[in-house]
Amino acid sequence: QVQLVETGGGLVQTGGSLRLSCAPSAPTFNSYFMGWFRQAPGKEREFVAAIDWGGRNNYYAESVKGRFTGSRDTDKNIVYLVMNALGPEDTAVYYCAARVDTCSGSGCSRSEEWDYWGQGTQVTVSS
After folding, report:
1. Are the C-beta atoms of residues 54 and 110 closer than 8 Å to each other?
2. Rounded distance, CA 66 to CA 63, Å?
3. 96 - beta bridge partners?
4. DSSP assignment, residue 96?
5. Residue 53, Cβ neighbours under 10 Å: how many?
6. What contacts 81, CB < 8 A, 6 or more positions away?
7. pLDDT band at 32 (very low <50, low <70, confident <90, very high)
8. 61-99 pLDDT, tens per residue?
9. What pLDDT, on a 0 to 100 scale, did the predictor assign at position 53?
């Protein structure tokens, strides 16, 4: 069982930035494909980013492409999501996720195919 713990959420003004962190408990962290999803009030959980094992071939939702950047530090066992140019539409609970298989492009967006989830961290962007 993999436990994921997200940190870094908070309140930020429009145009601001935040960095989310996700620390998996698994010692075999590097064997998991990592991702970020978010869920706004009254909406379904939506895909944000998928981060491959090397942290270089990542996939992003169109709504965050160019503003959000995912990465992973394999030495520290941490996955990051740097969010820039935030807007009120980015307000949501952000979840870290992990899966044992790979995905690519739109194939990463199906939440039911991810195996493990964190408890979420709230991001609120004020206008």
Report:
1. no
2. 9
3. 36
4. E
5. 15
6. 19, 20, 22, 36, 48, 49, 68, 69, 70, 94
7. confident
8. 999 999 999 999 888 889 999 999 999 999 999 999 999
9. 78
Q: How far is CA 29 from the centre of its chain?
A: 15
The model's confidence at residue 27, banded by pLDDT at 50, 70 and 90, is low
24 pLDDT tier (thresholds 50, 70, 90): confident
Phi-psi region of 85 (alpha: psi -120 to 50; beta: other; left: phi over 0): left
H helix runs in the chain, sequence order: none
List 23's β-bridge partners, or say none: 5
How far, CA to CA in Å, does 80 sit from each of 20, 51, 58, 87?
Answer: 6, 9, 12, 19
Phi, psi of 117 (to 5 degrees): -135, 150
Which pair of tokens denotes residue 28?
A: 């075999």
Question: How far, in Å, CA of 23 to CA of 8, rounded?
Answer: 11
**Side-chain half-sphere exposure of 88, counting CA atoms within 13 A:** 2
